[in-house]
Amino acid sequence: MTDRAPTGDLDRWPAAPFTAGGVTHDVHRRGEGPGVVLVPEIPGLTPQVLGLADHLVDAGFTVAVPSPFGTPGRPPTAGAVLEVLPRLCVSREFRAFATEVRRPFTDWLRRLAVDLDARTPGPGVGVIGMCFTGGFALAAAVEGAVLASVLSQPAAPFPVGRRRAANAGLSTADLDVVAERAARGEVCALGLRFSEDAGVPHARFATLRARLGDAFEVLELDSSPGNPGGFARSAHSVLTNEVRERPGHPALEARERVVAFLRERLAPAAT
User: Fold this and answer.
1) Which of 205, 230, 94 lies closest to 157 in space, CA to CA?
2) Would you give the DSSP letter of residue 40?
3) Inside any domain, residue 170
4) Is the distance from CB of 107 to CB of 20 less than 8 angstroms?
5) Could you say which of 162, 223, 247, 249 would form a disulfide bridge with 231 (CB–CB 3.0 to 4.6 Å)?
């Protein structure tokens, strides 16, 4: 038991470049079993993200962790965040404020999911996105190889104005495809957020619920004043920075629900 979030070490995660559509990023891979792509949150592949990746490996998954921004292994300091944000805001690859645009990183992530599916057992793969990358996890589900999408505190597009606040983080055309797959039972999504997190508006999850119906499961952790979990009103990172490995801890239970969700979709015979 600890009062700090679990962390991991880069030394255990060999990296190799992966190129698709003219875009190249390093991908760190480890584990055995069904495949899961874990896309880092801002500011990048932090020790806390690696701690989540280690947990997924220990739970029986093959995990591929791309490093699309930031310095791998660097702690999530304010300085690290400030270095990354300008690129995410203006880069054509990510377009943090834009809606209804084509983001090259989405295409790259889909090809990574297909590649991981070809290398791993099971009927398909899962994709986890967090914070800025939450919506990308759902956009990846346009690919038939993706059977499970986890959107943890999906914060993009940054919710400036009502239209962006309600935006699901992917184009209408892509959301139409995912909704059709969900209606056929081909893909399910799990969304997580803290109740007081203004960066992840209620309206965004309402949009996803309206389009995906029962295929979209929501876990909302209480971060209101005096909440039982002791979370600050500013709590944001459900699966990484806020996790404490103590029985009954709400973020720990949320992490375990993510593991169970992935097993249900990717290894149903084992559940």
Assistant:
1) 94
2) P
3) yes
4) yes
5) 223
Each residue of 184-241: pLDDT tens digit?
A: 999 999 999 999 999 999 999 999 999 999 999 999 999 999 999 999 999 999 999 9
Q: Is 28 helix (H, G, I), strand (E, B) or coil?
A: strand
Give the span between the Cα atoms of 41 and 70, in whole angstroms: 10
Task: Indicate whether 2 belongs to any domain.
Answer: no
Comparing CA positions, the residue from 138, 147, 151, 150 lying closest to residue 185 is 147
Q: What share of the chain is helix, strand, coil (3-state, %, to 5)?
A: 40, 20, 40
**CA–centroid distance for 228 within its chain:** 25
The CA R_g of the chain, rounded to the nearest whole Å, is 17
**Contact (Cβ atoms closer than 8 angstroms) between residue 191 and residue 208:** yes
| Alpha-carbon span 223 to 228, nearest angstrom | 9
Q: Is residue 4 part of a domain?
A: no
